[in-house]
Input
Amino acid sequence: MSAGRVLGSPPAARRPVLHRAPSGARPARRAPGPARRLARRLADAVPGAGRGVRRLLVLICLTPLTVVLAHQALRLPRLNTATAYGLVVLGGTIALLYLAYSRYEDPSKTSGPRRPDPGFPSLPARPRVDFLLAVKDEADAIEACVRSMAASDFPRVRIVVVDDFSTDGTREILLRLRDELGITVLLLDENVGKKHALVAACGRADAEIIAFTDSDCVLAPDALRRCVDALARHPRLGAVSGHCRALNAHANMLTRIQDVWYEGQFRIAKAAESSFGSVSCVSGPLAVFRREAIWNYLPAWAGDRFLGAPFRFATDRQLTGYVLGQAWIGVRLKDRYRDSPFVTGEDHPERRWRVGYVRSAHVRTNVPARFAPLMRQQVRWKKSFIRNLFFTGAFMWRRGPGPAVLFYGHVLWVLAAPLMALRHLVWAPAHGAYLLTLLYVCGVLLKGCVWGLAYRIDHPGDTRWRYRPLMSLFSSVVLAWLLPYSLFTVRRGIWSRSAT
Output
């Protein structure tokens, strides 16, 4: 990898003004009906209520689904494989909803442990942050992203942007923003890939906290501060993820579907994992780490190989895996890269870090607005899932029964999805079993409606909840087929963040 050129910041820089991106038309205001008033009351009551009250409210709301599950479970020995799979999915959905709404607490708003843990030293009261970004050919989106980084209300931030040999005018934009905002720009002389570019930026980081974002994202001014507060309040946290929604949700139906899906994946799935301190993926739109939780493993991250070839995907999942699993794999990884300055310069002890999710740290990202880019994005994510299965899956069972059930249960669901789609959408119609296909589609829509209802409770009056069943159907009918393709092409690919 070429060393590149570092272009530092001028001595004086103006404080940037963050211009809000358009968020789409809001639904017309109208007098709330009984259902909407009930949803608003529940949304207001659950976060502020005591834990016991919250759990009771959540159990009451989940009672209909629980009754259906219990009734069908009594017939389990007589059920076929497909029906049993449906029950497992329903049970998993109930468990996720219960954990997300009854156990999860935003770590930026809760108090840390009363007694200090000598194994997990506390951060300074006002830690320093190196905020890093790698970009390649993002001339259309990079200015909004960098301005939102610079508009952070956290006072002790150094922004470092590394350009991975862009050729579309991105470099010129970065140089202009450097002069205006006082950021540091690192220009690489050749394309090295996202992970190598970020590690090059890390080589110049000396703060207690290292944060990352993606080049097509726009952050709320308080997003970074809330993540730093979470790490400072809870010394056992080695990393936290922010909460992401679609920046271009207003574009068309495809982007609105993804926006509602993002909300559920963070608000429910990550919240459930966070209740055990074992979020399996600190997502790229806003990923914040304690320095000592990742520093010694950066060379392993950059040099990751899979099936005998360099692996350029799984950037988010893989780095999170080093935080989750270093107590069991850390010594081996550091020994493998013992000549790297990231290992020889600082040797941090292997700890059983917790990994959390900060719901109040809002960030928005451009999602694909057309079918072809969405498919390319989903293939990248499927490849990341495959790589992560062989890496994080090797030790996740050691983190306890709760994290293990969530992780391996999700793995089984993803692996079974294409088989279920093949059985119900191809085999069943070919053999005249149209009722079986209809039941499968109805089950998928029912699951989507449950997630949509959760969205409506969190966002009373927002009618976009109706897009969630469509996303469930789209995922089962279209996206499920991408897993076998991703497996067969797992060694191919380049990194690009274009969502057009």
In short: The first strand starts at residue 5 and ends at 7.
